[in-house]
Amino acid sequence: MKIIFDVLHLYYLPQYLPVRDELIKAGHQVYFVFYKTSDPSLNEICQSVINKENLDCFLADDWSQALSFYLEQKASWIIFGNAVEQIDVIHSVSKTAMMLHGIGPKAVYYEMPKKPMTVRFVEGEYRLNRLKGMHPNDKFIDTGYAKLDPAIQSDNNGVNLSDLGLDPNKKTILYAPTFYPSSLECMPKNLPQMLSEYNLILKPHFFSLIKTKYKKHSKILKRWQQADNVYLCDVEDYNLVPFMGVADVMLSDASSAIFEFAALNKPVIWCDFYKLRWSYRGIFSYRFKQRVDSDIQYFEQVGWRIQSPTELVDTIVGSLKETDAKVQQRAKVISQLAGRVDGQSANRVVDYLTNN
Q1: Which of 67, 156, 164, 169 could form a disulfide with 231 if both were Cys (CB 3.0 to 4.6 A apart)?
Q2: Would you give the end-to-end CA distance of the chain in angstroms?
Q3: Pfam families given for it (predicted)?
Q4: Where are the alpha helices (DSSP H) in 36-108?
Q5: How many domains are contained in the chain?
Q6: In sequence order, which residues have a C-beta less than 8 Å from that of residue 205 and are 6 or more positions away?
């Protein structure tokens, strides 16, 4: 078979790569489509990742050129991380599958385009049943979350604390805020000093580092980066999974990273405080509720909830002394929201692609 992965954003890649590896093992042809941007430095970073991961790649100027490539290639399957236009045209030559890059609480997770793809791979029975109920005419297959396979198969995915300039004798905190709604601007200016007893790895969302809209995020992060106990991930550090492998505790907000880290059976702290735009506050607060799905309620069941940065230090100390009851509760909820956490999700995706 020939399979093509559509990489609209670089941060889609960690969900695709475990599947790519299994497809190649099975002897299939695998290609990737990346999109050029108006930012030369970002294009260079993408090219660097393409070279590092040894990807057979087509660089498209835009969706129109990508579509022409797909129609020309006539692949068995094209895998997307987002809804696309003219899906019916693609279906004249190829089947399509959707693999979302996150398992978080944003309402967009449950939205489906009017013209769906051939199949969508989802995580766990809870989400499978909910999507089937909302979209009874669409095809959903529970495979689990392929992005986590490498972390489940190995605790260390190539990240060494000493190489990051951090102290391997200290516990390590991973802070992975999303871009919006984000807790980043609410954190204390002296966050590294507050956490001086720990290593602090900062892994912000891709958009926080590249979009001018979030330049305040970049400014804050670079100030924190000056502390000796801090490592700030670069744009080229596009994959969160290796950093989850070396962390003892993770902090995040309205991000699927909370479920991802919890799925590794590690303590995670939900920073339930956000810097909201004026258009999401007061009489417009309904917009925030529309953006965040009710699945956010499960954050508190898999982790530790704090509603102010003042609670942070004590909660970190407490999270490192988790009870068996907390661990068992987390495992139960993760089974619902991430499905089987056994390192074999990519194999299940490949089995479906090859058998259909």
Answers
A1: 164
A2: 11
A3: Glyphos_transf
A4: 40-52, 63-73, 87-90
A5: 2
A6: 11, 176, 177, 178, 179, 182, 255
